[in-house]
Design brief:
114 residues, alpha+beta, Alpha-Beta Plaits, 2 domains, three-stranded antiparallel β-sheet, two-stranded antiparallel sheet, 3 helices, 5 strands, 15% strand
Length: 114
């Protein structure tokens, strides 16, 4: 488990956590209780909520997601319509990034031929 981001507030920590999860990187938010128990806690490094990834081998992927977030690069767009899980065949609405049945991530969009 690795700490990958220290947020300015709860909402930012949970937003980034969601971006990581949507990218197939299991993550969690820690340190929320410290943030609220100390007056001025948001000004102290180490007292802010932080985001941790659960799998160390996904650090490079997480760095890309975080860099895109901090530089304002857009997140990948949801698919245009329903998609079918390539592993179990379950059909999902466009907004779902992973199969509810088996956990397989949505297939990466294919580039149209040039």
């Amino acid at each position: 488990m690795l700490k990958v981001f220290e947020a300015q507030h709860h909402a930012e920590a949970h937003f980034l956590n969601g971006l990581l999860e949507a990218s197939g990187i299991p993550a969690e938010v820690r340190g929320e209780s410290l943030f609220t128990t100390v007056e001025g806690g948001s000004a102290l490094s180490g007292m802010r909520p932080s985001v941790w990834i659960l799998e160390d081998d996904q650090l490079e992927q997480a760095k890309v997601v975080i860099a895109n977030y901090t530089t304002g690069v857009g997140v990948p767009k949801f698919s245009e319509g329903p998609w079918t899980c390539p592993r179990c065949g379950e059909v999902h609405e466009a907004q779902f990034a992973a199969c509810w049945n088996c956990g397989t991530q949505i297939p990466a969009p294919t580039e149209p031929p040039s």
